[in-house]
Design goal:
Strand content: 15-25%
Structural class: alpha/beta
CATH class of the largest domain: Alpha Beta
Number of helices: 8
CATH topology of the largest domain: Rossmann fold
Radius of gyration: 18 Å
Strand order of the largest sheet: 2-1-3-4-5
């Protein structure tokens, strides 16, 4: 799942991003409202973690424009103020959730995960298909009861193939959903990741390559 972290305190922003990447999210970071809007309109994010007090363009305006232009994107608004009036105002602008600073990363992570399940087509935290069981909350994957020791990217690719529910997923879609904006669009990283994932899944093979289209589970 893809997340945009918007926070003008660079150390905090980078810390949040690093924590989310450890949990297999693809994360981009903006330190002001201007670049946040630019990224939000170019890329498709499941969740935006949005600080309210931003330079250049205020977080409230960022929220308003994202809700208008990207209604499927969920917004978790952060603020140094825990006043009820501020929380109400943020929610009235269209934010989906609100978290006052300071906060525990574990709580932010739980809220982001909850919002990802509500973005686009709702997906339960545990998916079972073709002998595969994948749990995004507990971060485990099994095949026929056998634990799969997957990297974060392999886990995320498997998740995208499972939630497609039999539909073909293109390499471009996997790049968009699993990797961040710094990935080279001409890289072969998707092919290599799928190859390694197939090896770990074992026999019989369950990921099909559809020529000139993508992958199907």
């Amino acid at each position: 799942m893809r997340v945009l972290v918007v926070e003008d305190e660079q150390i905090l922003a980078d810390s949040i991003a690093a924590g989310l990447r450890r949990e297999a999210f693809a994360v981009d970071v903006s330190y002001d409202g201007d670049s946040a809007l630019e990224r939000a309109f170019v890329n498709e994010y499941d969740v935006i973690v949005l600080d309210r007090d931003l330079p250049r363009i205020h977080g409230d305006e960022v929220c308003r424009q994202v809700v208008e232009e990207r209604p499927a994107t969920r917004i978790l608004m952060l603020t140094a103020s825990g006043a009820v009036t501020d929380r109400v105002h943020g929610l009235e602008l269209g934010a989906d959730d609100y978290l006052p600073k300071p906060f525990a990363f574990a709580e932010l992570l739980a809220r982001v995960r909850a919002l990802t399940r509500r973005s686009h087509t709702p997906t339960p935290p545990r998916i079972t298909r073709a002998g595969i069981e994948l749990d995004t909350s507990r971060r485990y994957a099994l095949r026929d009861g056998r634990p799969l020791h997957l990297t974060n990217k392999e886990f995320s690719v498997l998740y995208e193939l499972l939630r497609a529910d039999g539909a073909v997923v293109s390499p471009e879609q996997l790049l968009e959903r699993v990797w961040d904006e710094h990935i080279d669009p001409f890289t072969n990283v998707v092919r290599v990741t799928v190859m390694n994932l197939r090896r770990k899944l074992g026999d019989p093979p369950i990921i099909r390559t559809i020529p000139e289209a993508g992958y199907q589970l």
